[in-house]
Write a structure and sequence with these properties.
Layout: H1 6-18, E1 21-22, H2 23-34, H3 38-51, E2 54-59, E3 62-67, H4 71-86, H5 106-126
Antiparallel strand pairs: 1-3, 2-3
Helix pairs in contact: 1-2, 2-3, 4-5
Length: 127
């Protein structure tokens, strides 16, 4: 699976934190910081829906969107990519580095550690 770009990640972070939201709610929360017009926000959401990263649902005549990918697994993939592909790091990766993040609970940090380092073990088994 490809990784979300920074714009997509901003939308996902908002949806993970707030649950289902209309495109207008996403835009009001994320758009100004990105310098987006409402049409840009809708385009980003539509592309994310095509990728299967958000789902669409009609609730009382309003279209709302929900994150369809797991927060911890997505962040784990981004961490792995940064450490392995960008920084060329080897060995176990300490998920504790993210302990101060307001986006992750203690349980999610444990899960992140397992995701990051389990994937590394799987890659070593294939080598």
């Amino acid at each position: 699976m490809s990784q979300p770009n920074p714009s997509e990640l901003n939308v996902l972070k908002h949806l993970w934190a707030h649950g289902r939201q209309s495109a207008r709610e996403v835009h009001d929360a994320v758009g100004p910081g990105q310098g987006w017009k409402p049409s840009t926000t809708r385009t980003v959401i539509a592309r994310m829906e095509e990728k299967g990263w958000v789902t669409r649902q009609d609730v009382h005549g309003i279209t709302v969107f929900t994150a369809a990918i797991d927060r911890t697994a997505t962040l784990g993939g981004l961490v792995r990519h940064l450490a392995r592909q960008v920084l060329d790091m080897d060995g176990p990766l300490p998920a504790a580095l993210f302990a101060e993040s307001p986006h992750l609970s203690d349980a999610e940090l444990d899960e992140l550690d397992a995701i990051i380092n389990a994937a590394e073990g799987e890659q070593e088994d294939k080598a």
